[in-house]
Amino acid sequence: MRQYDYRTPVVPTPFHSRTAAACRTNDWTRWAGYTTVNVYTEVELEYAAIRNRTSVFDLSPMVKYRIAGPDAPSYVNHLVTRNIDKLAPGRVAYVVWCNDDGKVLDDGTLFRFGENEFRLCAQDRHLPWLLDVAIGYNVEIEDVSADVAALALQGPTSCAVLKRFGLRGIETLKPFCIAEFPYRERTLTVSRTGFTGDLGYELWIDPARAEHLWDDLFKADPNHGITPVGSQALDLVRIEAGFIAPHIDFMPAEYAVRHTRGRSPFELGLGWQVDFDKGHFNGRRALLKEKRVGSRYQLIGLDVDGNKPARDSLIYYAKRRQVGHIMSAMWSPTCKRNIAIAILEAGRSSMWKDLWVDIYVKKELKWERIMARGQVVDRRFYKPARRTATPAPDY
Question: Which residues, in sequence order, are bridge partners of residue 374?
Answer without folding.
Answer: 304, 355
